[in-house]
């Protein structure tokens, strides 16, 4: 079944405590190639049938209202992913 | 009402087919049955079991579900009681949890259980689902859960794997218990290298109810409906039984089954509220939580405890994973599910409560007068058994026992270090002791648990016992403590169990409560090792004797065996929980001194 | 005596005030909030998330817990409950609304209060007795406190770090809308130590710590803003509830 | 600065309580076009300089060890995202 993926990331100006903790832990594992880490969310919405423009619009609405909080997060992507 | 999924087209092994094909090879050994156990199943049925029956017997006759190695010893908890000890017992050993009368029409139910192995594999989820399981035991008695406790044991504090386990397990217990709104009022935190590859995650839950609200796990009254509600059934907890992924045992199709279970505390919180509303409206006749052995256990125990039989259509089970075979559905240990028996008149009221809480349910079948447990798959019979043979008449072993050869030498060895002499040395020794991992402040763990929720916590960490108010107008309440000392038990399992009981009893008594009842979680190594079996037998004997001397009955508990890494068993660790009662929790006494100028007395020997 | 509800003399005018307490799936502290209302002398009325009806209450408490498991973001799903539409309308009409912990999170998700809560900077669930300062005693929920008064009440959450953009924070400070501030070490990284805020009109208040767990002697914190008080005898949170009752009675609401 | 994105999703056979709660909420918002929702994590690792094969290998190690729990999650992607 086709899936729509919604990516939500913390706004750049908002401190991301989880990303910060990961960034602090990586060098302790000997992984020092990174200057920063941010942790966001990835949602996969399954659609039964075709992904019509209407369904995609529903996904955009879901992304903007339920799946993200615009005060602290940005929706960075709403996209159909091809079936495997 | 919910719709049942279309029955899958498996190559179903029906009862009829089983009777016609006696020589089919069955994977009883892979499912953990011993050869004589399998032969007994064949003898009971008078034919070979179907795949689904084999699934049921193998899981219900496992050590975990049948207590086959421990039963002969646990009998003492029933035998060594006087009438006086039973005075406050409303429900004793044998049900999901014991129920104790605490007066004024109130009763309390409490029980401690283990989730050791799952917590080693996946600390967060293992510990979380451990809390979930014991809380469902409490709900199934008709009670509102009011608190949890968590006796924990880990390996050496400086071992590289210990941090993973401690942080995962503590946040799992907090994550689940906090989300359920159950105050955590105590527990234990012990570090000892004997638990390195086998941490002990025991969880205790306590619930309160009015006497008239007691519910038992039995299916009675022909024509009454059997319903499964809560989460959908997935492939959880059947990883070890992957041979069942192919019902005909021939195909080699690989099938994905979860290695661990993930808890859904939100679903459980809703389930609690929903069950309490069912109880209040008196719409369930019998109820059973689904834990180990899932539907196998719930159907066979309900039917076995009831006065008739049960007939169930398994395709009515709502599935999370539609590829599950009937045997897998019967064995699945998916969390956050309950099974209930409802009279036809109450069906509508039942459904209304489910809808109010948005809980999924499906009617599986009904109670019959046949004395048989019959399970169909799309109308064809795949299980036809006497439920007692599955649930209560499993194998019982008198396993060989032998007192370890080293017992004398470990008892003979004594402290040969230097004793501190002089006040400075004693001061240093005390400071060193107080700073040791097992003695130091534990708030780094306990601050991750909510102790305020529900507003009835009168004592919690760091006091000797947790105290919960039961009745808000009179102040009637209970105190609970859990204790064990694996080292004492290792040195002398008989005295060790008594000491664990005595410590727990003292903790409850010093809080100001009158001790009333006991629950226990017996964590030991492999029962197939005669020396472990000796430790186990001695511990049970000690606990039963101790209970008789103190006049408090064991009301229920749990046995956890095979706690070992390689051939090395953990120290015998009987965790004992004592429950006491207060007329008014205002009289509770905290540990420690709170004001200057108070006199200090040392009591006892 | 512990749990002696009769300690406060019964006052018919107070008792006539009806305070709604909403229950969402996963709400935990609803009974506690209702008990606090009762102890303060008012009448608690249970409100159900799925019912778009406030049952003639005079004020609403959105209590703590893990509604919908806090799974997506704390408060994100509850915000869309039918009862919340009514709460939003009533708040616009001036009805006193209090959000505690998860309730505060729901009020921010519902845009009744600015900002949001993210994970604590130490990333753990933490339960501890917390000293706060009342920075604004002109709201319906804080009128019984002295300006600048301290209070010790339990703080227990995992997502308690208050965040908002600098402009919003400046506005809140400038308009005196920071109602509660953490005193001493910042327990969770909240911007400017903010523990609770109000809307521009002053009728909607949200705070992360739990006043309803410090209302009954014997079952609260061991300390108060005025020092050690003995075993569980901290009741600094009670005035939140008596404030709103007195405000409503004085305003002739009941 | 270039970023490496790591997507982590709950294994398909594992219960995803978060996704389940969202799937239950969407229809109440009038968004009924979806049959299922799964919630995973998206990490963005910032790299100072070029994304060499070595750095990418570090990201893969981080993904497999720190960023995912292989018992319940799958790493579904480790990829450089082009600079905006
Ligand atoms: N160590 C024990 N002490 C006392 N009773 C026990 C002990 N272990 C198990 N029991 C009792 O045996 C009965 C069967 O256990 P049960 O509740 O079916 O186990 P589980 O909940 O693990 O499936 C229960 O009443 C339980 O309280």
From TrEMBL, chains A, D:
GO terms for cellular component: cytoplasm. SUPFAM superfamilies: PurS-like (SSF82697). Its EC number is 6.3.5.3. It catalyses: N(2)-formyl-N(1)-(5-phospho-beta-D-ribosyl)glycinamide + L-glutamine + ATP + H2O = 2-formamido-N(1)-(5-O-phospho-beta-D-ribosyl)acetamidine + L-glutamate + ADP + phosphate + H(+). GO terms for biological process: 'de novo' IMP biosynthetic process. It is an enzyme of class 6 (ligase). The keyword Protein biosynthesis does not apply. InterPro entries: PurS, PurS-like_sf. Keywords: ATP-binding, Cytoplasm, Ligase, Nucleotide-binding, Purine biosynthesis. It comes from the Bacteria. It is found in: Cytoplasm. The keyword Nucleotide-binding applies. Pfam families: PurS. Its main location: cytoplasm. GO terms for molecular function: ATP binding; phosphoribosylformylglycinamidine synthase activity. Pathway: Purine metabolism; IMP biosynthesis via de novo pathway; 5-amino-1-(5-phospho-D-ribosyl)imidazole from N(2)-formyl-N(1)-(5-phospho-D-ribosyl)glycinamide: step 1/2. Belongs to the PurS family. Part of the FGAM synthase complex composed of 1 PurL, 1 PurQ and 2 PurS subunits. Part of the phosphoribosylformylglycinamidine synthase complex involved in the purines biosynthetic pathway. Catalyzes the ATP-dependent conversion of formylglycinamide ribonucleotide (FGAR) and glutamine to yield formylglycinamidine ribonucleotide (FGAM) and glutamate. The FGAM synthase complex is composed of three subunits. PurQ produces an ammonia molecule by converting glutamine to glutamate. PurL transfers the ammonia molecule to FGAR to form FGAM in an ATP-dependent manner. This is Phosphoribosylformylglycinamidine synthase subunit PurS. It comes from Arthrobacter zhangbolii. The gene is purS.
UniProtKB/TrEMBL annotation, chain C:
InterPro entries: Class_I_gatase-like, PRibForGlyAmidine_synth_PurQ. It comes from Arthrobacter zhangbolii. GO terms for molecular function: ATP binding; glutaminase activity; phosphoribosylformylglycinamidine synthase activity. Pathway: Purine metabolism; IMP biosynthesis via de novo pathway; 5-amino-1-(5-phospho-D-ribosyl)imidazole from N(2)-formyl-N(1)-(5-phospho-D-ribosyl)glycinamide: step 1/2. The gene is purQ. The active site is at residues 101, 210, 212. One of its GO terms (cellular component) is cytoplasm. Pfam families: GATase_5. CDD domains: GATase1_FGAR_AT (cd01740). Transmembrane segments: none annotated. SUPFAM superfamilies: Class I glutamine amidotransferase-like (SSF52317). GO terms for biological process: 'de novo' IMP biosynthetic process. Keywords: ATP-binding, Cytoplasm, Glutamine amidotransferase, Hydrolase, Ligase, Nucleotide-binding, Purine biosynthesis. Part of the FGAM synthase complex composed of 1 PurL, 1 PurQ and 2 PurS subunits. Its EC number is 6.3.5.3, 3.5.1.2. It catalyses: N(2)-formyl-N(1)-(5-phospho-beta-D-ribosyl)glycinamide + L-glutamine + ATP + H2O = 2-formamido-N(1)-(5-O-phospho-beta-D-ribosyl)acetamidine + L-glutamate + ADP + phosphate + H(+); L-glutamine + H2O = L-glutamate + NH4(+). Part of the phosphoribosylformylglycinamidine synthase complex involved in the purines biosynthetic pathway. Catalyzes the ATP-dependent conversion of formylglycinamide ribonucleotide (FGAR) and glutamine to yield formylglycinamidine ribonucleotide (FGAM) and glutamate. The FGAM synthase complex is composed of three subunits. PurQ produces an ammonia molecule by converting glutamine to glutamate. PurL transfers the ammonia molecule to FGAR to form FGAM in an ATP-dependent manner. It is found in: Cytoplasm. Gene3D superfamilies: 3.40.50.880. It comes from the Bacteria. The keyword Ligase applies. This is Phosphoribosylformylglycinamidine synthase subunit PurQ.
